[in-house]
C-alpha cells in the first residue's frame, strides 16, 4: 500500500526486524518522505499556558478553559475540537485537586481508549498500519515491566473511570506495552519535551544508529525527512535513541526499551567507540583496568544523577556534575562522551538557574565534540547551537551568537524543512539581534 499524499514509501517485511518501511523512489537530503497526524497526543503539564492543548501552537495570550483553568487554547475553535479529549480530565482535575497525578503515558492511553471507542473508520494516521496492529512485545515483558504497567492500569482506573469504559485487562496490558515501544516524545527545537503522541504509520520505521531519516514535529503532525540520500528499494531507518553513547550503552537501551539487538554497521564494526571513549594520552599509558573502572564509575554517576534530578537542589546537582567531571578527567579526555554527558547536564542546570556565564562555559566544551560524535544532521547538535546562540546574545557576545544561529539554521532547514515555524521564527530572531 502507498501512503496518500507522499508517494514513494511502502511497508515491507524487513529481514530480522519485523515490518519496516522502504523507499520506492530515490530521496535527496532534506526531502520529505512522509507526514502523519497524531492518532492521539497529550501536552506535558509543564507546557500548559505556553502551547495550545489542541494544535500545539506556541504563542502568547492563549485562552484558558473556564472550568478547570488548566487547559489553554488558541481560540474557541481549538477548545471545541479538543473537548472530546479534555473532558476526560477537566472535571477530574478539579475533583482530585493536587492529588491529580496520572503519568503522561496514562493520560495518553486514556485518550487512545476514548478515540478507539468513537472511531468508525481507518484514521488518516493509519494509512500503512492500524494502531491495533502495532508491535506489542507482550511476550517479552519481564516482571518489573509488568508491574510498571499494572501500576499504570491502576492509575488509569483511579483517574479516568468516570468518563471511560475500559477494555478488558489483557487489552489494556497490550495497549500500554504498545505505547512503550511505539510512542513518540514530541520535542521542540531545543529538545524540550512537549508531550507524548502515537503516529501508527511512523511507528513502522525501524532503528539504525546511522539513520537515513529524522522525525520532527509540526504542531501535532510528525514529519520524516531524509538526512542521507536514499535510493529506491532502501530501508528507511530512524534512530530511537540518543546516538552520543558508545555501542554497549546503545545496545543496552535498545534491548531494554525495544527488545532487539542492533545489527547496523556502526554497531557491528564498533567504528566510533574509540572516539567516543577517548582516553587521555599521558606519558605513562593508562591501563585497561583503570579505563574499565572509570567507565563503570561514569555509568553509575549518570544513573545517580538521573535519579537525583527530581530530588536535589540545582546547587547540589551542579556539584554532582563537577565532582564526576573532575574524577573522570584523570582518565578521560574532555571530548569523552561520559564527560560530555555531565557537562550537558551542568549546562542545563546553569540555564535553569539563569547562570548564563556558567552555561556558556559548559556549552562551549560541547560544541566541537558534538559535531564530530553525532551524525552530520542531528537534532542534538542543532539544539545545542541554538541554546548557545541565545546564550551568546544574552551575555552580549553578538557575533558569536550569529555564527551559532547560522549553524543551527543549517541543520534545521534540512531536518525541519525551510518553511517550518521554528526556521522562520529563528530567522526573525536573527534579524532582530
Ligand atoms: C516502532 S516498532 C518498528 C516496526 C516494527 N518492526 C513492526 O513490525 O511493527 C519497534 C520494534 O521494531 C523492531 N526493530 C526496530 N528496529 C530494529 C532493528 N534495527 N533490528 C531488529 N528489530 C528492530 C523491534 O522489535 C522494536 O521493538
Ligand atoms: Zn490551537
Ligand atoms: Zn477544563
Ligand atoms: Zn546500531
TrEMBL record:
<keyword id="KW-0949">S-adenosyl-L-methionine</keyword>
<keyword id="KW-0808">Transferase</keyword>
<keyword id="KW-0489">Methyltransferase</keyword>
<dbReference type="GO" id="GO:0140999">
    <property type="term" value="F:histone H3K4 trimethyltransferase activity"/>
</dbReference>
<dbReference type="InterPro" id="IPR011990">
    <property type="entry name" value="TPR-like_helical_dom_sf"/>
</dbReference>
<dbReference type="InterPro" id="IPR001214">
    <property type="entry name" value="SET_dom"/>
</dbReference>
<feature type="domain" description="SET">
    <location>
        <begin position="7"/>
        <end position="241"/>
    </location>
</feature>
<feature type="domain" description="MYND-type">
    <location>
        <begin position="52"/>
        <end position="90"/>
    </location>
</feature>
<protein>
    <recommendedName>
        <fullName>[histone H3]-lysine(4) N-trimethyltransferase</fullName>
        <ecNumber>2.1.1.354</ecNumber>
    </recommendedName>
</protein>
<dbReference type="InterPro" id="IPR002893">
    <property type="entry name" value="Znf_MYND"/>
</dbReference>
<dbReference type="GO" id="GO:0005634">
    <property type="term" value="C:nucleus"/>
</dbReference>
<dbReference type="GO" id="GO:0032259">
    <property type="term" value="P:methylation"/>
</dbReference>
<keyword id="KW-0479">Metal-binding</keyword>
<dbReference type="InterPro" id="IPR046341">
    <property type="entry name" value="SET_dom_sf"/>
</dbReference>
<dbReference type="Pfam" id="PF01753">
    <property type="entry name" value="zf-MYND"/>
</dbReference>
<keyword id="KW-0862">Zinc</keyword>
<dbReference type="GO" id="GO:0008270">
    <property type="term" value="F:zinc ion binding"/>
</dbReference>
<keyword id="KW-0863">Zinc-finger</keyword>
<dbReference type="Pfam" id="PF00856">
    <property type="entry name" value="SET"/>
</dbReference>
<dbReference type="InterPro" id="IPR050869">
    <property type="entry name" value="H3K4_H4K5_MeTrfase"/>
</dbReference>
Amino acid at each position: 500500500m502507498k501512503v496518500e499524499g507522499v508517494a514513494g514509501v511502502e511497508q515491507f517485511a524487513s529481514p530480522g526486524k519485523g515490518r519496516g518501511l522502504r523507499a520506492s523512489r530515490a530521496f535527496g537530503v532534506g526531502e520529505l518522505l512522509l507526514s502523519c497526524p497524531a492518532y492521539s497526543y497529550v501536552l506535558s503539564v509543564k507546557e500548559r499556558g505556553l502551547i495550545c492543548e489542541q494544535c500545539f501552537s506556541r504563542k502568547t495570550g492563549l485562552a484558558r478553559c473556564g472550568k478547570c483553568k488548566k487547559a489553554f487554547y488558541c481560540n474557541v475553535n481549538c477548545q471545541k475540537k479538543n473537548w472530546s479529549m479534555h473532558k476526560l480530565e477537566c472535571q477530574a482535575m478539579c475533583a482530585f485537586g493536587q492529588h491529580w497525578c496520572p503519568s503522561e503515558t496514562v493520560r495518553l492511553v486514556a485518550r487512545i481508549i476514548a478515540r478507539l471507542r468513537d472511531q468508525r473508520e481507518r484514521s488518516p494516521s493509519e494509512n500503512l498500519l492500524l494502531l491495533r496492529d502495532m508491535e506489542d512485545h507482550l511476550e517479552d515483558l519481564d516482571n518489573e515491566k509488568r508491574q510498571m504497567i499494572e501500576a499504570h492500569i491502576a492509575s488509569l482506573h483511579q483517574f479516568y473511570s468516570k468518563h471511560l469504559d475500559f477494555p478488558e485487562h489483557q487489552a489494556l496490558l497490550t495497549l500500554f506495552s504498545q505505547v512503550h515501544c511505539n510512542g513518540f516524545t514530541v520535542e521542540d527545537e531545543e529538545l524540550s519535551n512537549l508531550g507524548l503522541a502515537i503516529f501508527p504509520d511512523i511507528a513502522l520505521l525501524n532503528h539504525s544508529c546511522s539513520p537515513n531519516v529524522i522525525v520532527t514535529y509540526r504542531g501535532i503532525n510528525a514529519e520524516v525527512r531524509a538526512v542521507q540520500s536514499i535510493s529506491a528499494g532502501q530501508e528507511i531507518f530512524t534512530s530511537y535513541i540518543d546516538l552520543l553513547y558508545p555501542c554497549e550503552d546503545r545496545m543496552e537501551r535498545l534491548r531494554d526499551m525495544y527488545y532487539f539487538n542492533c545489527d547496523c554497521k556502526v554497531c557491528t564494526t564498533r567504528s566510533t567507540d574509540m572516539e567516543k571513549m577517548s582516553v587521555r594520552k599521558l606519558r605513562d599509558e593508562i591501563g585497561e583496568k583503570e579505563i574499565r573502572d572509570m567507565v563503570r564509575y561514569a555509568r553509575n554517576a549518570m544513573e545517580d544523577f538521573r535519579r537525583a534530578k527530581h530530588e536535589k537542589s540545582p546547587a547540589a546537582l551542579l556539584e554532582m556534575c563537577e565532582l564526576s567531571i573532575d574524577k573522570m578527567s584523570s582518565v578521560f579526555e574532555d571530548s569523552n562522551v561520559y564527560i560530555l554527558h555531565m557537562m550537558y547536564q551542568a549546562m542545563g542546570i546553569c540555564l535553569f538557574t539563569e547562570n548564563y556565564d556558567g552555561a556558556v562555559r559548559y556549552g562551549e566544551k560541547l560544541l566541537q565534540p558534538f559535531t564530530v560524535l553525532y551524525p552530520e544532521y542531528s537534532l542534538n547538535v542543532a539544539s545545542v547551537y541554538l541554546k548557545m546562540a541565545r546564550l551568546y546574545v544574552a551575555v552580549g557576545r553578538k557575533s558569536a551568537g550569529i555564527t551559532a544561529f547560522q549553524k543551527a539554521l543549517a541543520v534545521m532547514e534540512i531536518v525541519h524543512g525551510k518553511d517550518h515555524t521554528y526556521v522562520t521564527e529563528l530567522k526573525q530572531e536573527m534579524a532582530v539581534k
